Sequence to fold (395 residues):
Amino acid sequence: MLKDKTIVIGVTGGIAAYKSVEVVSRLKKLGANVHVIMTEAATKFVQPLTFRSLSHNPVIVDMFAELQSWDVEHISLAEKADMFLVVPATANLIGKVANGIADDMLTTTIMATTAKVIFSPAMNVNMYQNSIVQKNIVRLKEEGYRFIEPDKGYLACGTEGKGRLPAPEEIVTSAIAYLLSSFDLVGKKVLVTAGGTQEDLDPVRYLGNRSSGKMGYALAKVAKARGAEVTLISAPTKLNKPSGVNIINVRTAAEMCQQVFKYQAEQDIIIMAAAVADYTPQSIAKNKIKKSNNLTLELKRTTDILAELGNSNGEQILVGFAAESDNLIENAQQKLKRKVVDFIVANNIRAEDTGFASDFNQVVIISKDDQIEVAKATKLEIADRIFSEVVKILD
Ligand SMILES: Cc1cc2nc3c(=O)[nH]c(=O)nc-3n(C[C@H](O)[C@H](O)[C@H](O)COP(=O)(O)O)c2cc1C
Fold:
């Protein structure tokens, strides 16, 4: 769990350094023990005091400064860390680490650590495309360092292109997925569905639900971090596209059904985390429905994708979700049998600060012989736990 994890954030001297403030804040809120090491250049952009206040730990900049506490200084952070996340990572820092230069606290500690290290580069588009920077990135990847791909878009220097730091939320989820992962899904294909489908009533209205897509996106990220080839069939969400994942956008239950069956045959694991509408309007009005005193809608059943998958005799491991407001376990157990699936992940949508839009969840993973209660944790941790159960029966 994140409460047992020490994450060291390295901040370097890029214009995006201000975004690492939110990264630290988010990781802290998720329960991690966070330490910050800044380069001298980074302090020109953000004050160490900001990071000290948010991380509740002293910030280290100067390698030769008088020690405040042996426990957090020098090489001890390299040993204590479960993960280093350098955000933003300048071209300079990437170049230094790729070439074994350790001339400040951040580079020295990165060189001395055996923890997972992940870089989130951000820079001007030409700088990012510079073949020297690209060669340094390839070199580091070959050595086992991980990278969060920069986004394309408007850059602070006034140019457009690849080099933008992704949103802090995106960086945090990618980093945690990597932190938690074992590399045990290499060579496996995983299909995840996410988000809430939208069923059109007329050209402007639809019937929807409150699913945020966070659980499904967390599953896709964790599967990717564990080495799988991931297809994410996503109903509309406000979330950023996870990197390295084949994403297929759909809107309606019918579209989702069509895409799931298109990809089913080649998958090893299918996880249905999407909130798929059970009903859809009998017909879609061609023109906007006019106001009247009362309106009666006639709805018809949509295809039960999970049950169809379960009854299709596919080879895949099948995982479904049961969002219940009462009789959680009983209903989930019935769903497990009725739909012929390997696992049902049951969550109580009435629980406080978990469920739909929250970053947290609290679930029971039910299989035919077991019932595992997972206490409140981030959705990434829950996703990781689900895959750990799936992996046990994979081969
Ligand atoms: C206003 C300003 C913005 C900068 N933004 C970036 C940036 O986004 N990415 C980058 O790689 N370097 C950027 N630099 C250059 C770095 O600050 C410079 O290479 C510095 O030596 C990096 O030191 P560090 O890697 O030790 O933090 C910027 C410099 C200035 C003055």
User: Anything to note?
Assistant: The pocket of flavin mononucleotide is lined by residues 12-16, 39, 41-42, 90-93, 122-123, 127 (CB under 6 Å).
